[in-house]
User: What shape does this take?
Amino acid sequence: MTDDVLTIADRLWRGEVSTATLHPVDHVGGFVEITDGVGFTPSFANVSAFATGDGLVLVDTGSLPLASVVHDDIRRWSSSRLHTAVYSHGHIDHVFGVPVWEQEAEEQGWAAPQVIAHHALPVRFDRYIFTAGYNTIINRRQFGFQDLNWPTSYRYPDRTYHEAMDLSVGGTDFALRHEKGETDDHTITWQADARVLCCGDLFIWASPNAGNPQKVQRYPREWAQALRRMLTLDAEFLLPGHGLPVVGADRVRMALTDTADLLDSLVDQTLAVMNAGGRLDDAVHTVRPPAELEERPYLRPVYDEPEFIVHTVWRQYGGWWDGNPATLKPASERALAVELASLAGGPGVLADRAVQLLEAARGAADAGEADAALRLAGHLAESAWLASPGDGAVQRARHDVFAARAARSTSTMARGIFTWTANESAGDGEGTAAAHAH
Assistant: This one.
């Protein structure tokens, strides 16, 4: 794929192709020269390449499974050595390509490439090593990759910076700046001569990944501020960490502005609930993104969801407690489920009601009614399963409810968790419930 990358990007922008089918977190493959001396490889995590008089500069290097593919795509464009790689942030889909280039450099007798990143990035790698088991589980759940094992060996940067860094390679100048958003270690890279802005995951052709329910704190307000600072650069080309390029200053300006406006609206609405003394539940069920922004082709909730961002805002500004006194020092979930099942007449009664709600959702003419019924069904099915995880009828009810929730979900986050739950219910639920209880 060459110029087709830009053709598809244009069709996505116009809404002729949907990100629900051409998902931004997917491997497209191929290579396109965006402008003279600047190339772009659309992969599971994108790689941007700059030709200089002293070798290539890459912004991000790709994921471990696709590192050689990305390398070969770039090699069809340039045979120059890799001089410098800049990590936009430390997520593992962006930082595992360097060893392929280092091996090539050794074989060719070239100087080894240097790696540059923000000073918080090595701390992320350290954390990934001591949470490898947890990250294996949550990423298997999120993406459905059952053979995924979280890595414990990383290519740390050779140089780090704090707020900003000027980089010059072979007569080409780059301005690196630290921003917070999806992570606390983000770097944006600006090449002023070509008016190319590499923004990492601060724009990904989807509702911002600011609310991932299984990952560490995100920074929605700071993210919006970062996007507004990017606007001052007046970029002609926006090369994101996921999704396809945005070409044209007007489109870049619109993409950055709309994303910032969406984030600011969610933060403002959530803070209004908090400042009025509301609970997290009030915010989750009342805060809504501006409809005209949610309908933008590049802000659809296909990866993360605005509802999840509400949780992130609450956690950042209000702490972990949701405002419900019963959850401050709660009973175990299993103990509560057993008590509720006993009051209802047994776990089977809860499961049967969950199935009834599932059928009501299937027959509902209104999408809002269907969603409300499925949310209730999820609570009841989960309570029934916690109370009696070995009951076959309960397992089937839980499976059916969460399979239906997965099928109706638009985002990778929700679909992954609901699918994991449905699959868990199709197997032996007793051991997992017992572990959950302890």
